[in-house]
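Figure 3 (text version): structure tokens given as input.
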């Protein structure tokens, strides 16, 4: 068999048989295949060589045990993985997630998405994702350090600046990257850009911490400009209060919008007066320094805290920035009924496929692989700076980030042009696919 099967049901039933029970991975592939298979059917150039079959099989998955000792002297064991999905256009690149819900299926979905996202940035980066079912909540700094060191003791064999360059994701921020990079440096006896998201004092790029959240808002700005509208004066609902959400809130405030909500896994706050710079500083201290719960915001500013998610709040713009499947069909309907204009995903696959279907047909809707690509894009800029042994200014990095988000928007418009509105999902899927597919074809059957 060397011709890609372009029937979606046949393609998916084969994929499900080969990957039983991996529902997150099935969903991610289904979303891409439903756009890419019709594109292949219409384009002879992409019909040979089983391109999508090859792109849905990771290059390799490394799975290993991480043993560590907690503060009470108990020996603990977790499972960790690195899914090296595809290095057709550059060294593997993608984050590491620490969360109790991490499974091989979750990391395969994220690695698959990353391959398309990284292609869209225009930078030479392949796709990968890693992580562990380790739950960092409530752990001391010492426990986090010992876990990170143990994880890197195994992982260091498989990564390197020209091989695979991990970064952060849920549960992995500056502290964890620092501990992992420190151990990598020690074990490899080298100082290279083998990870990104590093501290600025040891090779990190300025602007990387802010890049995903700022980039999502830059992408939203492009979508709004394309319909002769803007962000200024618009109300926004945001979920999460981690890295992506915090800097999405920050850029919304800087561009004159009025964000109304933030959340964590225990619930959300709704501030009808809007989250301003001073209130955002409070959330940054709460989440980045004290690692507290979002409910404290409601206690301090006298607004509402509720369990659940913020999607019943009326707003012009929506930014799901917490985790996968956090916005379902009912949530999407409620946002649409409340007059939503546009939604840009900060998280990876936050909308269920039913929700995505509704949003795609009713509002401007940007999938994460396009709208949250600013984070990995600035990771790519960090790799360039490390290779050249230079550090760019924040102005330089921010200018490049804005240009990259604009180019991704253009690519989505090129491949996603539609009758009523741009189909950003189709645009991102086909735009991401073509570059990787061209590389696969030109490099022979490997
Ligand atoms: P963080 O760990 O910094 O923050 C995650 C936020 O989401 C927290 O507020 C957390 O709440 C909440 N959250 C996590 N899991 C759940 C859950 N199961 N239910 C409800 N809330 C939850 O992660 P990031 O901000 O880095 O990542 C957020 C999303 O953005 C992820 O989908 C990630 O893959 C994606 N992303 C991240 C990039 C980056 O550069 N960091 C780049 C591109 C995408 P709590 O603290 O209570 O757990
Ligand atoms: O999902 C993502 O794009 C990330 N977690 C960032 C990956 C990276 O290598 O910066």
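Below: residues designed for each position.
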């Amino acid at each position: 068999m060397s011709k890609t099967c372009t029937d979606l049901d046949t393609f998916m039933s084969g994929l499900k048989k080969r990957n039983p029970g991996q529902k997150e991975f099935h969903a991610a592939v289904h979303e891409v295949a439903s756009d890419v298979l019709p594109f292949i059917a219409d384009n002879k150039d992409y019909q040979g060589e089983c391109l999508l079959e090859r792109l849905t099989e990771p290059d390799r998955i490394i799975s290993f045990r991480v043993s560590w000792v907690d503060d009470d002297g108990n020996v603990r064991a977790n499972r960790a993985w690195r899914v090296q999905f595809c290095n057709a256009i550059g060294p593997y690149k993608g984050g590491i997630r620490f969360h109790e819900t991490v499974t091989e299926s979750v990391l395969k979905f994220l690695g698959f998405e990353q391959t398309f996202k990284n292609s869209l940035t225009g930078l030479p980066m392949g796709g990968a994702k890693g992580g562990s079912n380790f739950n960092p909540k409530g752990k001391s700094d010492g426990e986090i350090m010992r876990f990170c060191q143990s994880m890197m003791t195994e992982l260091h064999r498989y990564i390197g600046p020209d091989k695979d360059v991990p970064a952060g994701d849920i549960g992995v921020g500056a502290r964890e990257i620092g501990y992992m990079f420190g151990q990598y440096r020690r074990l490899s006896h080298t100082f290279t850009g083998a990870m990104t998201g590093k501290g600025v004092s040891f090779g990190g790029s300025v602007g990387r911490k802010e890049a995903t959240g700022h980039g999502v808002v830059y992408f939203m700005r492009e979508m709004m400009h394309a319909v002769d509208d803007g962000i200024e004066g618009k109300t926004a609902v945001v979920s999460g209060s981690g890295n992506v959400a915090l800097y999405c809130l920050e850029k919304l405030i800087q561009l004159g919008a009025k964000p109304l909500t933030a959340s964590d896994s225990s619930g959300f706050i709704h501030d009808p007066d809007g989250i301003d710079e001073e209130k955002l500083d409070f959330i940054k201290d709460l989440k980045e320094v004290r690692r507290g719960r979002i409910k404290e915001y409601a206690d301090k500013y006298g607004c509402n805290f509720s369990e659940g998610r913020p999607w019943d709040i009326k707003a012009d713009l929506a930014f799901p920035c917490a985790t996968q499947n956090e916005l379902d069909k009912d949530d999407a309907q409620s946002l649409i009924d409340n007059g939503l204009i546009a939604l840009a995903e900060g998280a990876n696959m936050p909308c269920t496929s039913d929700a995505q279907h509704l949003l795609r047909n009713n509002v401007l809707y940007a999938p994460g692989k396009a709208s949250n690509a600013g984070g990995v894009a600035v990771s790519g800029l960090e790799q360039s700076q490390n290779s050249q042994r230079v550090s760019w200014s924040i102005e330089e990095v921010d200018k490049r980030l804005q240009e990259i988000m604009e180019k991704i928007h253009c690519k989505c418009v090129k491949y996603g042009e539609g009758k009523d509105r741009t189909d950003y999902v189709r645009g991102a899927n086909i735009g991401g696919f073509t570059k990787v597919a061209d590389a696969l074809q030109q490099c022979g059957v490997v």
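The domain at 60-190 is CATH 3.40.50.10860 (Rossmann fold).
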